[in-house]
Write a structure and sequence with these properties.
mainly alpha, 6 helices
Length: about 180
């Protein structure tokens, strides 16, 4: 029972000897947890007399972090799906006259998902930083944890972006993506 029963299946799926869901899904989950912690801290400070002058910023943070959290939760499955599409593209490439094009299309999607995760996690990290001075100091450890989870999401997602770019034949796409990093 308890909280463990909710996260245990997700954690155990990561330990299974299969490639997906893997690090990309874990990165998205880390980002979603970072956003959730930011919402928790901001929500517990909103409406308190000591933070009334920051009400607008706190409310905006809650709203944006909530949106990002949902996007990152969707990316948990999207990353695994994109990886599975790449594997299928490699398997089906033998039967295609445009095998490079089929594989590149799948690799581009498998690149875009973690790129989006990294960009969203960067935004979470920025919002968490903004919350530090305008929320309860008693919740500093929660914001430190949120920042660490956001950093893990960024690093994990960018590692996935890079590994996909290395396999791409479309050099222009790879160059454009690297400019966004």
């Amino acid at each position: 029972g308890g909280i463990r029963s909710g996260v245990e299946p997700f954690i155990e799926q990561r330990a299974a000897p299969v490639a997906a869901p893997g690090g990309g899904s874990a990165a998205a989950a880390s980002g979603a947890m970072a956003a959730a912690l930011g919402v928790m801290v901001a929500s517990m400070s909103r409406g308190k007399k000591a933070y009334v002058q920051y009400e607008r910023q706190i409310s905006e943070a809650i709203s944006r972090l909530g949106q990002i959290r949902e996007e990152l939760k969707a990316s948990i499955d999207a990353d695994a799906d994109a990886f599975n599409s790449v594997m299928a593209a490699y398997e089906n490439a033998k039967e295609s006259s445009d095998s490079d094009g089929v594989i590149d299309a799948a690799l581009k999607q498998a690149t875009n998902v973690p790129l989006g995760v990294a960009e969203r996690a960067r935004e979470v990290a920025g919002i968490v930083e903004l919350l530090r001075p305008i929320t309860s100091p008693n919740m500093k450890s929660d914001l430190v944890t949120a920042a660490a989870l956001a950093k893990a999401a960024i690093e994990g997602a960018l590692a996935n972006v890079e590994i996909n770019l290395e396999s791409l034949k479309d050099v222009d796409f790879a160059t454009q993506v690297r400019k966004r990093l």
